[in-house]
Request: fold
Amino acid sequence: MNLGRWIGAAYAIAFALLYLLVFLLFPPDLALHILQTCRTSVQGLAVNFAVAPISYFEVLVYILKLQHLLGHAIPYGEIMQLLLLNFVAVELLIFGSFAYFHSKRRVHAYNAQKVFWSGVFASYMLVAIEALYGCGTGTSIIGVSLTSILLACVGSDLFHAARNGEKLTSQALRILAFAFLATMLVGYLLSPIVHLSGLALFITILFIWDKSFRKDLLAILTLFAQKIGLFGTKR
Reply:
């Protein structure tokens, strides 16, 4: 196991332990009270903000919304799906992002820790904005951020591999990763406003923080501008 995977495993374990700690410190009844009073209680607002990237509050919000829409309690299976998307999948994404950006077989070389922390900072920024009208956003912002950047990078790897004439069978793992990430992104975009807002914040932070990401994004934007004729046509 290379250094990136060790670091990724450490981050994933720390994330899981902190997530569990939040659950133990703020069981569902207390968490529900915090969510209902966070806009009128400084203490509730502070707790919601502090635990945002590592809390199950977001899952609880979705459960309440679904219960309101359906008019009855949500089946256990649907609760597990929410936990899979907002906890288990995020765990895999944290480990996977470190493993990917420290691997030798990849086109893009962004700083894995900057990528992860940009997602965390984006979640805090969105929670601060969201506090004006509600509470309960956080962990999924890390999820959609890591999903999006890994999807773009793995997709780029597959494109370069195809252009270099590599066999499809040699890209099986990348294809499976791409399919998994695409499915994850669709799941997150079922709530488009919140997650696209968080993703925009993530991109902005990483653009400022990581030179390699900034260089690649500017190159893509320049190419796109040329394609649509924004800079005029080449002679």
The chain has ten helices and no strands.
